[in-house]
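Q: Start with the shorter request: fold the first protein.
A: Done. Sequence, then structure:
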Amino acid sequence: MLSASLLFTEGDADFAYGCAGEMVKRHTPRDAGTLRGRLACNWLMDTIASQGADVRRERFRVDTPKGEREMANLSCSCRTNPEDGWGVLLSHYDTKPG
């Protein structure tokens, strides 16, 4: 059961859709562990933080078929309703090579 009421206006939905489209346009491909992946990560952090959310990056290293790569996960906490608690957003933003 969802503990917080997710209140999104039509304007919120338009903003989110526009951001997703802008990220695809600016940052494709964005393979994990590459410069373009890091640029996409930075863009996401800046865009989400500009809306007042708390965004955190967790960096880690992974062995891949192309060698060791630095990866990152983002987590975002944002207010969903002033009377409720905080919502947490987790998403996969990178693309698969090829």
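Q: Next, the second protein, separately.
A: Sequence, then structure:
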Amino acid sequence: MVKKFLTENNITAYFNESMQKHTSFKVGGYAVCVAMPDTVEKASALVKFLKENNIKNYYLGNGSNVIFSDEGFDGVELFDDTFVISDFDSKSFGYHWQ
């Protein structure tokens, strides 16, 4: 279901991905999925989809200054390199970054 959504929306994603490849400290276990939306609109659509389908997700920005657990994460990790979270109006569909 997630893979289909990502493909249909042209969102770059990696599955069973080591977080060591995506964080500045180069530590951490595996995430079931690492998604990299390249526009605010794609990020909004993805977060809305994940919320509506009760799929765990966590926003990591560009991975700087993050220590990711060696135990991994059984959900979708969101990264962005092309926009900043302040551009993202999360209130438009009731999701709030934590």
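Q: Describe the second briefly.
A: Residues 40-52 form the longest helix (13 residues). Residues 9 and 42 are 7 Å apart (CA to CA).
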